[in-house]
Protein backbone atom coordinates (compact mmCIF):
# COMPACT_ATOMS: atom_id res chain seq x y z
CA UNK A 1 0.00 0.00 0.00
CA UNK A 2 2.79 2.45 0.91
CA UNK A 3 6.21 2.46 -0.69
CA UNK A 4 9.30 2.19 1.52
CA UNK A 5 10.14 5.84 0.86
CA UNK A 6 6.62 6.90 1.93
CA UNK A 7 6.87 4.85 5.12
CA UNK A 8 9.99 6.81 6.01
CA UNK A 9 8.82 10.21 4.81
CA UNK A 10 5.50 10.10 6.67
CA UNK A 11 6.69 8.05 9.65
CA UNK A 12 5.66 10.64 12.23
CA UNK A 13 2.20 10.88 10.70
CA UNK A 14 1.77 7.11 10.92
CA UNK A 15 2.52 7.31 14.65
CA UNK A 16 -0.30 9.79 15.30
CA UNK A 17 -3.30 7.83 16.52
CA UNK A 18 -5.74 10.10 14.69
CA UNK A 19 -3.82 9.85 11.40
CA UNK A 20 -2.06 6.50 11.00
CA UNK A 21 -2.15 4.64 7.72
CA UNK A 22 -5.80 5.41 7.01
CA UNK A 23 -5.32 9.15 7.52
CA UNK A 24 -2.14 9.23 5.49
CA UNK A 25 -3.91 7.48 2.65
CA UNK A 26 -6.63 10.14 2.83
CA UNK A 27 -4.01 12.89 2.62
CA UNK A 28 -2.30 11.30 -0.36
CA UNK A 29 -5.65 10.97 -2.14
CA UNK A 30 -6.70 14.58 -1.49
CA UNK A 31 -6.62 17.58 -3.82
CA UNK A 32 -6.36 20.97 -2.13
CA UNK A 33 -6.64 24.32 -3.91
CA UNK A 34 -4.65 27.15 -2.30
CA UNK A 35 -5.61 30.59 -3.56
CA UNK A 36 -2.69 32.88 -2.79
CA UNK A 37 1.00 32.00 -2.46
CA UNK A 38 2.00 34.87 -0.19
CA UNK A 39 2.30 35.30 3.57
CA UNK A 40 -0.47 32.81 4.40
CA UNK A 41 -0.19 30.55 1.37
CA UNK A 42 3.51 29.96 2.04
CA UNK A 43 3.19 28.07 5.36
CA UNK A 44 -0.04 26.41 4.24
CA UNK A 45 1.59 24.99 1.13
CA UNK A 46 4.84 24.04 2.86
CA UNK A 47 3.14 22.02 5.59
CA UNK A 48 0.54 20.40 3.34
CA UNK A 49 3.23 19.33 0.89
CA UNK A 50 5.49 18.02 3.64
CA UNK A 51 2.55 16.15 5.19
CA UNK A 52 1.80 14.36 1.93
CA UNK A 53 -1.35 15.96 0.54
CA UNK A 54 -1.27 14.24 -2.83
CA UNK A 55 -2.28 17.09 -5.11
CA UNK A 56 -1.81 20.80 -4.48
CA UNK A 57 -2.95 23.52 -6.85
CA UNK A 58 -1.53 26.98 -6.09
CA UNK A 59 -2.93 30.10 -7.73
CA UNK A 60 -1.29 33.51 -7.65
CA UNK A 61 -0.81 36.08 -10.42
CA UNK A 62 1.76 38.20 -8.56
CA UNK A 63 5.53 38.11 -8.89
CA UNK A 64 8.00 37.73 -6.03
CA UNK A 65 9.35 41.03 -4.68
CA UNK A 66 12.12 41.62 -2.17
CA UNK A 67 9.63 43.13 0.30
CA UNK A 68 7.69 39.82 0.27
CA UNK A 69 10.50 37.74 1.72
CA UNK A 70 10.10 39.00 5.30
CA UNK A 71 7.03 36.75 5.60
CA UNK A 72 6.54 34.78 2.36
CA UNK A 73 8.99 32.06 3.32
CA UNK A 74 8.31 29.76 0.38
CA UNK A 75 10.18 32.14 -1.96
CA UNK A 76 13.88 33.08 -2.22
CA UNK A 77 15.86 36.18 -3.13
CA UNK A 78 16.99 34.53 -6.36
CA UNK A 79 13.37 34.19 -7.47
CA UNK A 80 12.48 37.89 -7.28
CA UNK A 81 10.58 38.71 -10.45
CA UNK A 82 9.31 35.13 -10.84
CA UNK A 83 5.63 34.30 -10.59
CA UNK A 84 4.70 33.34 -7.03
CA UNK A 85 2.80 30.17 -7.88
CA UNK A 86 5.70 28.88 -9.97
CA UNK A 87 8.27 29.87 -7.35
CA UNK A 88 6.23 28.08 -4.69
CA UNK A 89 5.94 24.99 -6.87
CA UNK A 90 9.73 24.85 -7.21
CA UNK A 91 10.15 24.86 -3.44
CA UNK A 92 7.43 22.29 -2.84
CA UNK A 93 8.79 19.86 -5.43
CA UNK A 94 12.19 20.06 -3.75
CA UNK A 95 10.60 19.28 -0.37
CA UNK A 96 8.36 16.46 -1.56
CA UNK A 97 8.64 14.99 -5.06
CA UNK A 98 6.10 12.35 -3.98
CA UNK A 99 3.14 14.64 -4.68
CA UNK A 100 1.69 16.56 -7.64
CA UNK A 101 2.03 20.36 -7.69
CA UNK A 102 0.12 22.49 -10.19
CA UNK A 103 0.96 26.21 -10.30
CA UNK A 104 -1.65 28.58 -11.74
CA UNK A 105 0.11 31.87 -12.55
CA UNK A 106 -3.09 33.85 -12.84
CA UNK A 107 -5.69 35.70 -10.83
CA UNK A 108 -8.44 33.15 -10.28
CA UNK A 109 -11.86 34.67 -10.87
CA UNK A 110 -15.09 33.93 -12.68
CA UNK A 111 -15.25 30.64 -14.57
CA UNK A 112 -11.59 29.84 -13.91
CA UNK A 113 -12.16 30.09 -10.16
CA UNK A 114 -15.32 27.99 -10.39
CA UNK A 115 -13.53 25.24 -12.31
CA UNK A 116 -10.58 25.21 -9.91
CA UNK A 117 -12.87 24.93 -6.88
CA UNK A 118 -14.94 22.23 -8.57
CA UNK A 119 -11.81 20.13 -9.13
CA UNK A 120 -10.60 20.34 -5.53
CA UNK A 121 -11.67 18.43 -2.42
CA UNK A 122 -11.02 21.40 -0.14
CA UNK A 123 -10.17 25.07 -0.68
CA UNK A 124 -7.77 27.31 1.24
CA UNK A 125 -8.36 31.06 1.04
CA UNK A 126 -4.96 32.70 1.54
CA UNK A 127 -5.88 35.95 -0.24
CA UNK A 128 -5.62 39.47 1.13
CA UNK A 129 -8.81 41.19 -0.02
CA UNK A 130 -12.54 40.90 0.61
CA UNK A 131 -13.48 40.76 -3.08
CA UNK A 132 -11.59 37.50 -3.51
CA UNK A 133 -12.77 36.10 -0.18
CA UNK A 134 -16.44 36.68 -1.02
CA UNK A 135 -16.05 35.16 -4.47
CA UNK A 136 -14.26 32.08 -3.12
CA UNK A 137 -16.84 31.64 -0.37
CA UNK A 138 -19.80 31.92 -2.73
CA UNK A 139 -18.40 29.26 -5.04
CA UNK A 140 -17.48 26.95 -2.16
CA UNK A 141 -21.12 27.15 -1.03
CA UNK A 142 -22.35 26.54 -4.58
CA UNK A 143 -19.96 23.62 -5.16
CA UNK A 144 -20.36 22.30 -1.58
CA UNK A 145 -16.63 22.41 -0.85
CA UNK A 146 -15.11 22.93 2.57
CA UNK A 147 -13.21 26.20 2.95
CA UNK A 148 -10.41 27.14 5.34
CA UNK A 149 -9.95 30.90 5.49
CA UNK A 150 -7.24 33.01 7.11
CA UNK A 151 -6.39 36.68 7.47
CA UNK A 152 -3.51 38.59 9.03
CA UNK A 153 -2.70 42.24 9.71
CA UNK A 154 -0.06 43.75 11.95
CA UNK A 155 0.48 41.45 14.92
CA UNK A 156 -2.95 39.82 14.63
CA UNK A 157 -4.75 37.23 12.58
CA UNK A 158 -7.64 34.82 12.46
CA UNK A 159 -8.55 31.47 10.97
CA UNK A 160 -11.92 29.85 10.36
CA UNK A 161 -13.28 26.79 8.58
CA UNK A 162 -16.57 26.55 6.71
CA UNK A 163 -18.62 23.58 5.59
CA UNK A 164 -19.39 24.85 2.10
CA UNK A 165 -23.14 24.40 2.18
CA UNK A 166 -24.77 22.68 5.11
CA UNK A 167 -28.07 23.88 6.62
CA UNK A 168 -27.54 25.56 9.96
CA UNK A 169 -23.81 26.14 9.50
CA UNK A 170 -22.42 29.59 8.60
CA UNK A 171 -20.46 30.65 5.56
CA UNK A 172 -17.80 33.36 5.37
CA UNK A 173 -20.35 36.04 4.50
CA UNK A 174 -22.36 35.14 7.61
CA UNK A 175 -19.23 35.94 9.63
CA UNK A 176 -18.37 39.11 7.70
CA UNK A 177 -21.29 40.79 5.94
CA UNK A 178 -20.01 43.62 3.70
CA UNK A 179 -19.74 46.99 5.45
CA UNK A 180 -18.23 50.35 4.57
CA UNK A 181 -15.68 49.82 7.35
CA UNK A 182 -14.14 46.95 5.40
CA UNK A 183 -13.21 49.29 2.56
CA UNK A 184 -11.15 51.33 5.03
CA UNK A 185 -8.96 48.39 6.08
CA UNK A 186 -5.45 48.93 4.81
CA UNK A 187 -3.41 46.22 3.07
CA UNK A 188 -0.19 45.11 4.74
CA UNK A 189 1.78 47.18 2.20
CA UNK A 190 0.49 50.24 4.06
CA UNK A 191 -0.18 48.96 7.58
CA UNK A 192 2.61 46.41 8.02
CA UNK A 193 2.52 42.79 9.12
CA UNK A 194 4.68 40.72 11.46
CA UNK A 195 6.24 37.84 9.52
CA UNK A 196 5.66 35.22 12.24
CA UNK A 197 2.00 36.33 12.51
CA UNK A 198 1.48 35.20 8.92
CA UNK A 199 3.35 32.01 9.77
CA UNK A 200 1.15 31.26 12.79
CA UNK A 201 -2.11 31.82 10.92
CA UNK A 202 -0.98 29.91 7.83
CA UNK A 203 0.20 27.02 10.00
CA UNK A 204 -3.17 26.95 11.78
CA UNK A 205 -4.86 26.85 8.38
CA UNK A 206 -2.69 23.91 7.35
CA UNK A 207 -3.51 22.08 10.58
CA UNK A 208 -7.23 22.63 10.02
CA UNK A 209 -6.97 21.32 6.46
CA UNK A 210 -5.32 18.15 7.74
CA UNK A 211 -7.95 17.81 10.48
CA UNK A 212 -10.71 17.93 7.91
CA UNK A 213 -9.01 15.59 5.42
CA UNK A 214 -8.33 12.85 7.99
CA UNK A 215 -11.87 13.09 9.41
CA UNK A 216 -11.37 14.69 12.81
CA UNK A 217 -14.13 16.57 14.63
CA UNK A 218 -15.96 19.22 12.60
CA UNK A 219 -16.59 21.48 15.58
CA UNK A 220 -14.31 24.12 14.05
CA UNK A 221 -16.85 24.61 11.27
CA UNK A 222 -18.72 26.84 13.72
CA UNK A 223 -15.73 28.59 15.24
CA UNK A 224 -13.37 31.45 14.37
CA UNK A 225 -10.05 31.62 16.20
CA UNK A 226 -8.24 34.92 16.81
CA UNK A 227 -4.55 35.33 17.50
CA UNK A 228 -2.95 38.50 18.90
CA UNK A 229 0.80 38.06 19.15
CA UNK A 230 1.32 41.56 20.51
CA UNK A 231 -0.58 40.81 23.72
CA UNK A 232 -0.10 37.03 23.35
CA UNK A 233 -3.80 36.19 23.34
CA UNK A 234 -5.48 33.27 21.60
CA UNK A 235 -9.25 32.93 21.74
CA UNK A 236 -12.17 31.49 19.77
CA UNK A 237 -15.76 32.52 19.16
CA UNK A 238 -18.73 30.56 17.90
CA UNK A 239 -20.02 31.56 14.47
CA UNK A 240 -23.73 31.48 13.70
CA UNK A 241 -25.50 31.19 10.38
CA UNK A 242 -27.37 34.35 9.40
CA UNK A 243 -30.95 33.62 8.39
CA UNK A 244 -30.94 36.18 5.59
CA UNK A 245 -27.47 35.52 4.23
CA UNK A 246 -27.70 35.96 0.43
CA UNK A 247 -25.08 33.24 -0.12
CA UNK A 248 -26.08 30.34 2.12
CA UNK A 249 -29.49 31.45 3.33
CA UNK A 250 -28.60 30.62 6.91
TrEMBL record:
Descriptive protein name: Molybdopterin-synthase adenylyltransferase
EC numbers on record: 2.7.7.80
Family: Belongs to the HesA/MoeB/ThiF family.
Chemical reaction(s) catalysed: [molybdopterin-synthase sulfur-carrier protein]-C-terminal Gly-Gly + ATP + H(+) = [molybdopterin-synthase sulfur-carrier protein]-C-terminal Gly-Gly-AMP + diphosphate
UniProt-listed NCBIfam families: PRK05690.1
Organism encoding this protein: Magnetococcus marinus (strain ATCC BAA-1437 / JCM 17883 / MC-1)
GO molecular function: ATP binding; molybdopterin-synthase adenylyltransferase activity; sulfotransferase activity; thiosulfate-cyanide sulfurtransferase activity; ubiquitin-like modifier activating enzyme activity
Function: Catalyzes the adenylation by ATP of the carboxyl group of the C-terminal glycine of sulfur carrier protein MoaD.
GO cellular component, one term: cytosol
Keywords on record: ATP-binding, Nucleotide-binding, Transferase
Lineage: Bacteria, Pseudomonadati, Pseudomonadota, Magnetococcia, Magnetococcales
Cited InterPro entries: ThiF/MoeB/HesA, ThiF_NAD_FAD-bd, Ubiquitin-activating_enz
Amino acid sequence: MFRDEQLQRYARNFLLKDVGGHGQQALLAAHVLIVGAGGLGSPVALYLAASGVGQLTLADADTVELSNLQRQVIHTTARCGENKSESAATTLRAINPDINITPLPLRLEGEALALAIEAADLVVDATDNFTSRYAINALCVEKQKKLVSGAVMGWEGQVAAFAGFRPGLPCYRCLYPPTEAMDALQPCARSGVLGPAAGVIGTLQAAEVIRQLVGLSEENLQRVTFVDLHSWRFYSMTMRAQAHCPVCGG
